Amino acid sequence: MKTLFLTAFLLLRLGFASAQPLAVRASSDLPCIAISPGSSVHFRSPEPIAYADISDPRIKGDLPVKNVLRIKIPTDSVQNIDPGTDLGTLTVIGETFMAQYRLISASPGACGAAADIEILPEATVALDLQPQRMSEADMRAHAMDMLLLRGKKPLLKTSSQGITVSLNRVLCVGELIFMDLSFENSTALAYEPSSLSFTLEDRKINKATTSQSVAIKPLFSLYPAKRFSKVFRNIYVIGKLTYPPSKRLEVTLDEKQLSARKLSLSVKYRDLLTADTF
Fold first, then answer.
1. How far apart are CA 219 and CA 227, in angstroms?
2. Which member of 23, 33, 181, 243 lies 3.0 to 4.6 Å from 247 by CB, making a disulfide possible if both were Cys?
3. Which residues contact 224 (CB under 8 A, 6 or more apart)?
4. Residue 276 neighbours by CB under 8 Å, 6+ apart
5. Residue 166: beta bridge partners?
6. Structural domain tally of the chain?
């Protein structure tokens, strides 16, 4: 009886499994892209490309910039590829999507061959994100909204050698901290920053103890660091963090030139605790 019951249970399970639809996309259903040997094809992604896979080893690819994939059939592979040859599947994965294309070869210089492909929503499949993760596009949107907020008295400010660094506002979105920083130059010499670093430092360093500095890499910055003559404002995003009163978050601005004007802004933990939310 026990054996009969077990057999019936397994049959039911197999029947249930076979009745479930499979979420499969056939390669014949993928958008088809014709590639002309010797010519490059660029795929433009709406967000940074995290991963790309080219199934045919005869096709080479690289990422000249973070949201552009470039593929090409090298000239040394052209002799082995006839027009209409199936070149497999190209897979592109961004922060929130996956896109796939079927590649075929075209005659050299063919008018119908692709040169520039924009990855559109209809060609993508959504990827499930971890709850604490935010896409770069969403971080950029929040940063732009932060720029539009009405100005108020800075939370913190420090000045040295004619350069002023101000922490205008701190906002939290989920597990992320958005920091609005302004840089002002009151001298006649333009300031060319080499880096802006975030570190956790000890507030007081005793000779008998060992100081420990922990670097914190920003997850996103709205603009790259650039040379400024008068004013520069930027939004930086770091992960949510906690630290004891004996520590401080140090924002340090370094200069490229020999004058090496350097400024440090100390952010206490209570300044982060009082941050607003979007």
1. 22
2. 243
3. none
4. 169, 170, 171, 172
5. 157, 182
6. 2
Nearest-angstrom CA–CA distance, 104 and 41: 12
Beta bridge partners of 104: 34, 86
Query: What's the whole-model pTM score?
Result: 0.61
Residue numbers of the domain that contains 150:
137-277
Query: Rounded to an integer, what distance in angstroms lies between the CA atom of residue 53 and that of residue 91?
Result: 5
Given pLDDT bands bounded at 50, 70 and 90, which one contains residue 17? very low
Per residue in 235-245, pLDDT (tens digit) is 999 988 777 77
> According to the model, what pLDDT value does residue 76 have?
75
pLDDT tens, residue by residue, 92-102 = 998 888 999 99
Q: Is residue 18 part of a domain?
A: no
Average pLDDT value over all residues in the chain: 82
Question: Is residue 6 assigned to a domain?
Answer: no
| CB-CB contact of 193 with 225 (8 Å) | yes
Q: Over 60: is that where the pLDDT of 20 sits?
A: no
Q: Percent of the chain, pLDDT > 90?
A: 32
Regarding whether 211 and 104 lie in a shared domain, the answer is no
User: Could you give the CA distance from residue 155 to residue 82 in angstroms, rounded to a whole number?
Assistant: 66
Buried b (16+ CB within 10 A) or exposed e, 22-31: eeeeeeeebe
Structural tokens at position 49: 């490309």
pLDDT classification of 46: cutoffs 50, 70, 90: confident
